[in-house]
């Protein structure tokens, strides 16, 4: 398998894993405080990452790499998980998943800025079309239904796109799994302190679904998914492989319906299919 195909394969696996993040978060915030959930998942993943780095005796990053790791940590370790957890207090997982259709455009834009990539103009046509479909759907549903939640999701998309692009750029020199592990370790002292501070007063009211949600977002969303995702971005290109995120709403909506019993409207499915076609167009003509 050539490097480009390997990048798309790793990126696709990463998207599959991330597709369960918002439904799992929705389950977790039913019983856990959003801030506790954010810092607890980062603490659990950070401890696992520290163990891996020590076990495999990985060299420490340089000073310049530490600065980039700080951007990654603020974007994907703290920013996106916290903002989405807060948003899911205001809206359903199905509604929030639609906003993920904006992630490819955000990632591509930051890939141009931070990664020095220059996609062809036709690529931006498909990327913008997919994003407009998502925004149009959100507007058609009425933002007054959850204006705060919508604003939080949009901000989450911005910080996540920056974290993805910066992490992919850094992965080229540091390595994909090493990069996310070091970013988690960088955030670990603060995350552990905040986890201790936000410990629930009582654990008795926390159900099994919330615990399963915490386990998923800690192990898969916070660590394993990033190993595949950053390798895919580094190998296949930040902007182009980033378009695979347009597939995430489809998988996420299916999980929201199957696991949470949430209603998935025909309009949601139409928008999802349309953005999948935009991914195919970006893949075919954006080279």
Automatic annotation (TrEMBL):
<dbReference type="Pfam" id="PF00892">
    <property type="entry name" value="EamA"/>
</dbReference>
<feature type="domain" description="EamA">
    <location>
        <begin position="7"/>
        <end position="131"/>
    </location>
</feature>
<keyword id="KW-0472">Membrane</keyword>
<protein>
    <submittedName>
        <fullName>EamA family transporter</fullName>
    </submittedName>
</protein>
<feature type="transmembrane region" description="Helical">
    <location>
        <begin position="211"/>
        <end position="230"/>
    </location>
</feature>
<feature type="transmembrane region" description="Helical">
    <location>
        <begin position="267"/>
        <end position="286"/>
    </location>
</feature>
<feature type="transmembrane region" description="Helical">
    <location>
        <begin position="122"/>
        <end position="139"/>
    </location>
</feature>
<feature type="transmembrane region" description="Helical">
    <location>
        <begin position="242"/>
        <end position="261"/>
    </location>
</feature>
<dbReference type="InterPro" id="IPR000620">
    <property type="entry name" value="EamA_dom"/>
</dbReference>
<feature type="domain" description="EamA">
    <location>
        <begin position="148"/>
        <end position="280"/>
    </location>
</feature>
<comment type="similarity">
    <text>Belongs to the EamA transporter family.</text>
</comment>
<feature type="transmembrane region" description="Helical">
    <location>
        <begin position="7"/>
        <end position="29"/>
    </location>
</feature>
<dbReference type="InterPro" id="IPR037185">
    <property type="entry name" value="EmrE-like"/>
</dbReference>
<dbReference type="GO" id="GO:0016020">
    <property type="term" value="C:membrane"/>
</dbReference>
<keyword id="KW-0812">Transmembrane</keyword>
<feature type="transmembrane region" description="Helical">
    <location>
        <begin position="179"/>
        <end position="199"/>
    </location>
</feature>
<keyword id="KW-1133">Transmembrane helix</keyword>
<feature type="transmembrane region" description="Helical">
    <location>
        <begin position="94"/>
        <end position="113"/>
    </location>
</feature>
<feature type="transmembrane region" description="Helical">
    <location>
        <begin position="35"/>
        <end position="57"/>
    </location>
</feature>
<feature type="transmembrane region" description="Helical">
    <location>
        <begin position="151"/>
        <end position="167"/>
    </location>
</feature>
<feature type="transmembrane region" description="Helical">
    <location>
        <begin position="69"/>
        <end position="88"/>
    </location>
</feature>
<dbReference type="InterPro" id="IPR050638">
    <property type="entry name" value="AA-Vitamin_Transporters"/>
</dbReference>
């Amino acid at each position: 398998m050539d490097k480009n195909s390997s990048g798309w394969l790793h990126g696709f696996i990463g998207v599959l894993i991330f597709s369960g993040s918002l439904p799992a978060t929705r389950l977790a915030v039913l019983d856990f405080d959003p801030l506790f959930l954010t810092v607890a998942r980062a603490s659990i993943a950070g401890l696992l990452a520290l163990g891996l780095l020590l076990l495999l005796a990985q060299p420490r990053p340089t000073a310049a790499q530490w600065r980039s790791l700080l951007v990654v940590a603020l974007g994907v370790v703290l920013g996106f998980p916290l903002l989405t957890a807060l948003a899911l207090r205001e809206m359903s997982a199905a509604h929030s998943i639609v906003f993920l259709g904006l992630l490819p455009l955000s990632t591509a834009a930051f890939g141009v800025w931070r990664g020095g990539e220059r996609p062809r103009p036709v690529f931006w046509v498909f990327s913008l079309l997919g994003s407009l479909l998502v925004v149009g759907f959100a507007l058609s549903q009425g933002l007054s239904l959850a204006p705060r939640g919508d604003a939080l999701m949009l901000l989450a998309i911005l910080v996540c796109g920056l974290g993805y692009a910066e992490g992919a750029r850094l992965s080229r020199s540091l390595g994909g799994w090493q990069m996310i592990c070091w970013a988690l370790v960088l955030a670990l002292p603060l995350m552990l302190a905040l986890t201790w501070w936000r410990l629930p007063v009582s654990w008795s009211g926390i159900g099994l679904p919330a615990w399963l949600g915490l386990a998923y977002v800690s192990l898969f969303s916070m660590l394993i998914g990033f190993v595949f995702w950053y390798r895919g971005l580094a190998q296949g290109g930040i902007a182009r492989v980033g378009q695979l995120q347009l597939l995430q709403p489809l998988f996420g909506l299916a999980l929201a319906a199957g696991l949470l019993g949430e209603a998935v409207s025909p309009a949601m499915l139409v928008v999802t299919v349309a953005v999948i076609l935009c991914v195919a167009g970006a893949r075919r003509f954006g080279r």
